[in-house]
Amino acid sequence: MGFRHAAVLGPVSFFLGILSICFTLDHALLWRPLTADIISDGFQFYTTFFNAPTAIKALLHAMMGIGLVGLVSKLHKWDDSAMFFDGSSLGAYVFAVAVYLTVIIPTLRTIAEPLERRRGRTAGQEWARRTTEVKEKQEKAGKKE
């Protein structure tokens, strides 16, 4: 395995690790009944993720750059593997970076710093409001049955 393979496998493994860490919380948010604790955990996790120190953000973006450079360097030697597998991998990687820049970062920003119309509220007040909404929905669902 050469440098080019390592330059692709390292960042991909890094991002699979981040995805696994996020999935532990996302699983509860997506497929379990919503409770105040789950919502609070989600807000706290993603707010912490967004407000991470600059060194952690730099590491994340450096790994993205290394993976991109690794895939482009693998295309330099144009053979069948590069044409089909590496080319499609580069397309998927560029698509993932585009989703990160256009969807994930603005969503994390909205979670960490609520929208303009909620400017006066703190994050704790927002959690309390959403927790109350979830409890009211659960009570209504319980009364209907």
From TrEMBL:
Recorded GO molecular functions are: unfolded protein binding
Q: Report the transmembrane regions from the record.
A: 12-31, 43-72, 92-112
Report the GO terms under cellular component.
endoplasmic reticulum membrane
Region Disordered, residue ranges? 121-145
Compositional bias (Basic and acidic residues): 127-145
Judging by the UniProt lineage, the source's domain of life is Eukaryota
> What are the protein's UniProt keywords?
Membrane, Transmembrane, Transmembrane helix
Q: Which InterPro entries match?
A: Psh3/Shr3
Keyword Membrane, does the record have it? yes
Would you kindly state one Gene Ontology biological process term found in this protein's UniProt entry?
Answer: endoplasmic reticulum to Golgi vesicle-mediated transport
* Name of this protein: ER membrane protein SH3-domain-containing protein
